[in-house]
Amino acid sequence: MSAPRTRFAPSPTGFLHIGGARTALYNWAFARHHGGRFVLRIEDTDRERSTLESEQAVLDGLEWLGIEWDEGPVRQSERMDRYREVVEELLRKDRAYRCVCTREELEERKQATIAAGRKWTYDGRCRDLALGPGCGPHTVRLRLPAEGRLAWDDLVFGPSGQDAREIGDMIVRRSDGAPLYHLAVVVDDVEMRISHVIRGADHHSNTPFQLALYAALDRTPPLFAHVPLIVGRDGKKLSKRRDPVSVQQFREEGYLPEAMRNWLARIGWSHGDQELFSKAEIAELFELANVHRASAQADPAKLLWLNQHYLKTLDRTLLLDRLLPFLERVSGRRVQPTPELARLVELLRERSRTLQEMAELARFLVVEEVAYDAKAAAKHLRREIVPALADLHARLAALEDFAEGPIEAAFQEVRARHGDLPMGKLAQPVRVALTGGEVSPPIFETLAVLGQHRALARIAEALHYLRHERD
RNA sequence: GCUCCCAUCGUCUAGUGGCCUAGGACGUGGCCCUCUCAAGGCCAAAACACGGGUUCGACUCCCGUUGGGAGCACCA
Q1: Catalytic site residue A240?
Q2: Does nucleic acid strand B have an atom less than 7 angstroms from the CB of A199?
């Protein structure tokens, strides 16, 4: 195939939705795979609902996911004159006609038809009236063929189509002069020379009408590929209320773009048994032929697993960089990358599923003092540990090289001196003293990362708490 | 209601008439490892929606049923 041109055409009426993000990803991947170009178009003809903020949110989301576009963004709102021209041209060529039926009249006739048990499409009342521009408030309707089939070979769904007579003459220009969505889309896809329209399956049944528009415009339609919808947990349509749907939201919860991209790619598309795909692999391996036809549920558990995988394997500098904002948020302070923090992050990689979790586990390193988790303190900070803990404090204070090995030796000595104290009995209280909670990397490493001075201060603080504050 | 579409473990999927005692991954359960939490290793449970055909042979092809989805606007 000659270099294809694909496009992603979101309407900026909210944030970037995971369904939209996946559609964008597929368009991007298809273009990259075939050495084509990927164009971004903003469908903001609905002035009421479109905002600049949400346009920016969509752009940010795409950038974050690493889905870069080659052209655009082109805004439909800036092309209104062109759509008007096209409608005039359609009128001139008698491919369309003016219609003065009001909404009320239409509704009335529609109800009557349905009551009579027949199917409603526009009844063509104004079709042969040859109404001129002076006919008063009117819409413009496309003249649809009375017979024949509007068919295409969908790249995902295969042979598709609908009889023209079942569609009826659809409106292409509203009575206020604004073009309808389908007209704008077709005009843009023609003029942007889009070769492959890859979009959500919710547009599958809109396609016949758009085909009629291409015919009226005397243009060859592009190839269509409809990708299955992502549905919610119960198999129903995604609901903003029930399901997490915003890319931005996942981002704020600490998911990595690498994981999101991989997750999105694998919903409704597969390449054999492969689960892990880098950005380059998605571009290299993506084929429309391997896109499923059935709608799919997005599984948050799988995303969590993917996220942990990328957390484990991401470049260390990059990871630290991504973590900082989260760490600043959970600690409430400015955080500089330090060698200690970098070391801790290495230990936290396989213990965190999100950047948020990682930040919470790293918090103890960047704050001045930790607050004891009530449950952890109740369980591990008990009076009977005081002698051993005090002994450990003394031994650790005496260390010249505050590294893992010597620290471990200190622990062994203390345990032996206190009736062969089980490791857990000593490690857990120390862990609570150091971090405030009962979860952290291995205790020797945790101590080493925190440093002798701060570690001793926290153990001393715990001893003070045990002697004076605890009942 | 009408039109169109879809249907393999809980979820994402492999499978294109015999390689299937239906494979993988996530999740779930168990065991091992273990100073906590993880990670890791091993094991397990878990699916071809149903009914008819076609065929020597159907998860794979055809028809129907059931279930699910999308579209049916002077929204996008």
Answers
A1: yes
A2: no
